[in-house]
Design brief:
Blueprint lengths: L10 E10 L7 E8 L2 E6 L4 H5 L2 E4 L4 E4 L1 E6 L17 H17 L2 E6 L7 H10 L7 E3 L4 E3 L10 E3 L3 H14 L3 E5 L18 H13 L3 E6 L2 H9 L4 E4 L5 H9 L5 E3 L3 H8 L10 H23 L3 E2 L17 H7 L5 H8 L1 H6 L17 E4 L16 E6 L2 E4 L1 E2 L2 E2 L3 H7 L1
Parallel strand pairs: 1-4, 1-5, 6-7, 7-8, 9-10, 11-12, 12-13, 13-14, 14-15
Antiparallel strand pairs: 1-2, 2-3, 5-16, 16-17, 17-18, 19-20
Helix pairs in contact: 2-3, 4-5, 8-9, 10-11
This protein binds zinc ion.
Zinc ion binds next to loops.
């Protein structure tokens, strides 16, 4: 797994920390040692000899935990005030914006991001590659392409790759896979933000889902879907879609089918977008029509009940929130708060979904998402205890140290955060 990294022999120690190791164990006090990119020891008190050559962070009881995962990232969403405004940037500015979003995700403690569609085809991939080559700071990133939809099924035409039929989607999937995406995205239902293509409308015919999904898997990449309607969720389950976004409207029989595939499939509800649209957009000066307000209020209520039922059944629910509109700008990531306040998660359960499950959805369950020997050193030193107040993790100023791949991205000495790596390297 690539990502810009610490040099192979650098040794970093976190001493006197409260460790949330994401194995499900209650937190415990101890030290953690990192060598190169990986965690070497967890919990045991480090000897003076070990600490001698190491760079030491004194935890003073602060929390050490894994970096977080956002499973529905749109780094190229440009904090637009409108849907169509997502395309307003020219390619040069848009590339810089996307790189900046990657930086912000990492500044906010997200060391794992799963792309959920790129406004222009190569933005996600270019930024992923630049991160992996160490050119820019950012999380580990699985890149998506433009979202695909049939001619009358686009949510936002300007950001859509149109596909006409089964042959066409196979061709498009192969082209995207050849260009290097990690996943493709099918836009399989409407959305309550639109008047003429609603959340319970289904856009893909069966044969296109089947052919597209089969082609993606044959190319070794995964399939994500925008699927709010019950019928679209059924199609996801029938044709092997790997990651189901939204899944608000799920009938009893679909819930059973989903439960039967709970080891294979992930659901990311992206509650922040409807939540912010219903509760905050107007007050922030962004107009929401009455019909949008009514429709999203209803969907949010239904989605919350659906997710609570999924949680009961052990279906894997991921944080990730569709950030990147003017009323949900990058840097305001707070899905874990929603999991606790809206879905009844304990803070520990919310953290496990963003860390241990994050490592799973990133396809490295034995190397990412836990504070364990042998795992990659993607670590947060948090000022406070997120098990007492999960909202601590929604504010980047509470993250005193951010490490990715053994490399310190951010550090704080006393009350003074040192400049981040990007600013530092630009100043040279
Ligand atoms: Zn999205």
């Amino acid at each position: 797994m690539k990502a810009a990294n610490g040099s192979d022999d650098s040794v970093v120690a976190f001493v006197d920390v409260n460790i949330i190791d994401s194995t499900g164990k209650e937190p415990y006090h101890g030290d953690v040692l990192v060598k190169g990119k990986r965690i070497i020891s967890v919990g045991d008190k480090l000897s003076p000899e070990t600490l001698k050559g190491a760079r030491v962070f004194q935890g003073k009881g602060r929390t050490l935990m894994s970096g977080l995962c956002d499973a529905h990232s749109h780094m190229s969403f440009n904090n637009s005030e409108t849907m169509d405004g997502l395309t307003n940037l020219d390619i040069e500015e848009h590339t810089l914006f996307t790189a900046r979003s990657a930086h912000i995700f990492l500044d906010c403690g997200y060391t794992m991001c799963l792309g959920a569609a790129s406004v222009k085809q190569r933005l996600d991939m270019v930024v992923r590659d630049a991160i992996n080559q160490g050119q820019i700071p950012g999380p580990r990133y699985l890149a998506n392409g433009q979202e695909m939809a049939p001619p009358d099924g686009a949510l936002i035409p300007g950001i859509t790759k149109f596909v006409n039929d089964a042959d066409d989607i196979v061709k498009a999937v192969k082209v995207m896979a050849g260009e290097g995406v990690d996943a493709v995205k099918f836009s399989m239902s409407g959305d309550e933000i639109l008047d003429d293509l609603r959340a319970e409308d289904t856009t893909f015919p069966d044969d296109m889902v089947a052919a597209g999904s089969e082609a993606a898997h044959a190319c070794g990449i995964r399939v994500c879907s925008h699927a709010r309607s019950d019928e679209s969720v059924v199609q996801c389950l029938q044709y092997g879609v790997d990651i189901i976004y939204h899944a608000s409207f799920v009938s009893d029989s679909t819930m059973l089918a989903l439960e039967a595939q709970k080891d294979r499939v992930y659901v990311a509800p992206t509650l922040n977008f409807p939540y912010a649209t219903v509760h905050e957009a107007q007050a922030k000066g962004f107009p929401v029509t009455n019909s949008q307000q009514t429709a999203y209020t209803r969907e949010l209520d239904i989605a919350i009940a659906t997710m609570r039922e999924m949680k009961k059944r052990g279906i894997k629910i991921m944080p990730g929130g569709d950030y990147g509109f003017a009323w949900t700008p990058h840097g305001t990531y707070r899905d874990l708060e929603h999991f606790v306040k809206l879905l009844g998660y304990t803070p520990m359960e919310a953290i496990l979904s963003a860390t241990a499950l994050g490592g799973e959805i990133m396809l490295h369950p034995n190397e990412l998402g836990k504070v364990q020997p042998g795992y990659y050193a993607d670590l947060l030193l948090v000022n406070g205890n997120p098990l007492e107040d999960i909202s601590l993790l929604s504010k980047r100023e509470n993250l005193d140290v951010i490490m990715i791949n053994g490399k310190v991205h951010k550090e704080t000495i006393g009350d003074h955060p040192l400049q981040y790596e990007l600013e530092k390297s630009l100043a040279k």
